[in-house]
Amino acid sequence: MSERKATIASRVGLHARPASIFAAAVGELPIEVTISLENDPVEDAMDASSILSLMSLGAANGDVVVLRAEGDGAVEALEALVKILETDLDAE
Amino acid sequence: MQNFSGVGVSPGRIIGSVRQMPKPVSEPAVGERLSSSTTADEATASLRAASKVVQAELQGRAAAATGAGRAVLEATALMAADPMLIKAAVKLITSGTSAERAIWESGASVAEMLHNLGGYMADRATDVLDVRARIVAELRGVPAPGIPQSTEPFILIAEDLAPADTATLDPAKVLALVTSGGGPQSHTAIIARALGLPAVVAAPGVDELVDGTEVYVDGAAGTVSVDPAADEQALVAAWLLAAETLAVFDGTGSTADGHLVPLLANVGGAVDAVKAAELGAQGVGLLRTEFCFLERDTEPTIDEQVVAYRGVFDAFPGKKVVVRTLDAGADKPLPFLTDSTEPNPSLGVRGYRTDLTTPGVLKRQLTAIATAAADSPAEVWVMAPMIATVDEASDFAAMCRVAGLKIPGVMVEVPSAALLADRILGEVDFVSLGTNDLTQYTMAADRQLGTLAALNSPWQPAVLHLIRLTVAGSIAQGKRKPVGVCGEAAADPVLAVVLVGLGVSSLSMTARSLSAVGAVLKSVTLDEAKRLAELALSARNADEARTRVRAELPILEQLGL
């Protein structure tokens, strides 16, 4: 199991356009990725490819989230996803 | 020949074939089970396939859209095949529920979750319900909800249109609008006037017309006739001829005897403003500032606002531009300002009242307006919406002075403001009558309800009396401060004459109506307008008021209005 933390950079938090971009990126991966808020238990982790889950997570600008994945290419995949979360997607 | 009669809300005569707006998708029965011939696996596969079809459709629409609309459609497309939505539905299917009922329930619980999160998320609940309806339509093999796609131009028939339909309404494809519901001030009417499309609303029975049926629509008379013949073709030809005369406004609003009534435009941004200036508008009587705020999650910065306002001011050098401060709430919710859970938003925290719950937004907006006005060639006036008391008017005027804005005013939309217009005009420099809201609040009738269309007419003698009272307030105050009208009433050439007769000093309307209003106004003297106003005031009801005045204006027949 690989695990990475990321700080949400988008001004509006992880919803609207940033959530769309992130969910679409996860959806293209061959592995399953979960997301949870930093202090939430692992059982509460949600499917990161679901825009609805991301919206219900309610991660605001500056919040730290944990991404988890297993399998081939998990490390590289999480690396790429962290980059997306740590970019201010609203500014683009 | 079969005829339907309704209320004409946007003039024009046209012949074309009809397309029905698909009926809203009905709820699959509670407890609906899988049919005996379908296995759970098959139903799951159908659901996944339908969700992919809907997703692809929405992605296609997103690709064709621009700006904020595109982002919303992209997010909605993702929702269509969202694991959270689909997994919950599949679980229900496995326990024997039909695919339609399963996605219906799953969508409902997701929408409820979003609704409970409040703010921006609550607004997205509508998108989930839209996606759900599309998937159910796909599973049933019926047309998706929304304006039909067609390669040929058509006359759109609907129950009523919602503001959201404007985004998908292509004026190159839609020839006219006809609705069985809605009223003269419904969104259908507003959309039709803004796009210059002939429109008839509140015409019962039109929803029975079969797609492809040829009809004649008269948007002034409010009639729809099936299988038009030579007579109707002649009427269409006559309209096209009259439309040429009506295409130009000479830029000076006046009665036949030279009493000047500036004809201004209602605009919602710089693009609108440039178009309005080209159509001869003598200024802007209503700049709706919501355009900078809508479809956003956060308040725009002062700098962003300055740029947006300046774009409008620049289109009217040396002319008046009346800026209305943010009018959020009711039918224009904003996630960072309004509470979407209010039981009765029309009577809730909206317009100027949002300054109570979210202080600061208005102050920053006034700063932005003052900054944009400072180096602008336009004469900038500012007014607040939904003012109900003299104190509110005085507080707003004080805020304007602090911001450095010289000409503060307020809208008269709440009957209390019309009743105390003299005292309110003691605090501010002008008032502008918002007849749409003034009508709905005077008659206690929701603007969107087709069943109340008759109540919801600015021709109601009670509404006309409140307008007269507002003018009387200006006279009593002593300085004859301006009393303008910026509601839909000003765009009705017949009612415009009455408003001038009641003593209104300027009329602001959708720019496309300028020429028709200007032409009819030029056909009467001020004394005649006053006489017609008396006829309307003393009428027994709205219909009688309108009929009486129309009968005295022969030019309407000539121009096909």
From TrEMBL, chain A:
Function: General (non sugar-specific) component of the phosphoenolpyruvate-dependent sugar phosphotransferase system (sugar PTS). This major carbohydrate active-transport system catalyzes the phosphorylation of incoming sugar substrates concomitantly with their translocation across the cell membrane. The phosphoryl group from phosphoenolpyruvate (PEP) is transferred to the phosphoryl carrier protein HPr by enzyme I. Phospho-HPr then transfers it to the PTS EIIA domain.
UniProt subcellular location: Cytoplasm
GO biological process: phosphoenolpyruvate-dependent sugar phosphotransferase system
Domain of life assignment: Bacteria
One Pfam family per UniProt: PTS-HPr
Domain called HPr: residue spans: 1-92
The protein, known as: Phosphocarrier protein HPr
Species per Swiss-Prot/TrEMBL record: Cryobacterium fucosi
Main localization of the protein described in the UniProt heading: cytoplasm
Record key words, sorted: Cytoplasm, Phosphotransferase system
PROSITE patterns: PTS_HPR_DOM, PTS_HPR_HIS
InterPro entries per the UniProt record, alphabetical: HPr, HPr-like, HPr-like_sf, PTS_HPr_His_P_site
SUPFAM superfamilies assigned: HPr-like (SSF55594)
GO CC terms: cytoplasm
TrEMBL record, chain B:
Cofactor(s) demanded: Mg(2+)
Annotated PEP-utilising enzyme C-terminal domain residues: 254-524
Enzyme Commission designation: 2.7.3.9
Binding of Mg(2+), residues: 413, 437
An MF annotation (GO) of this entry: metal ion binding
Protein name: Phosphoenolpyruvate-protein phosphotransferase
Domain PEP-utilising enzyme mobile: 152-222
Main subcellular localisation: cytoplasm
Enzyme category, top tier: transferase
Pfam hit, one: PEP-utilizers
Family per similarity comment: Belongs to the PEP-utilizing enzyme family.
Reaction equations catalysed: L-histidyl-[protein] + phosphoenolpyruvate = N(pros)-phospho-L-histidyl-[protein] + pyruvate
NCBIfam families to which the protein is assigned, alphabetical: PTS_I_fam
